[in-house]
Amino acid sequence: MLFRRIYQFLIVYCLCLVGLLGIKQVLGLSDYVIPGVTLIHSTFGRVSGGYFLDVLNTLSVTIFGQIISIAMAFTVGILGRKSSWAGSFIKVMAYNIQAYPIVALAPIIFILLGDGFISRLLIASMICYFPLLLSVLGVMAVPVKDIEHFYIATGRMRWQLEVKIRAFENLSKLTTVIAGSATLAMAGTIVAEFIAANAGIGYSIRIALYQSDLAGILTALFYIGIIISVYQGMLETLGELVKTKWSAPKGGELL
Amino acid sequence: MSVKPWEFRQWPVVILVIFVLFCVSPVRAGAIKVNYRLKWLFNTSVAGDILAVDQGYFKTAGLDVTVKEGSPEKNAINELELGYADFGVASADQVIRALDKGADVVVLAQLFQVNPMQWIYRADRPEIKVLGDLKGRHIGITFGGNDETIMRTLLALAGLGEKDVRLSGVRFDFTPFLKKKVDVWPVYKNSQGVILADQLSREGEAVYFFNPSQFGVNFVANSIVTSGKLMKTHPERVKIFLKSLLSAWEAAMDPVNAAQVLAAVKKKDSQTPDDIQQKQLAATRQLIKPDKGIRIGVFDVGAWKQTETILLNEHQIKGPVGIASRLIAQERL
Question: From A123's CA, which of A117, A183, B186, B307 has a CA 20 to 30 Å away?
Answer without folding.
Answer: B186
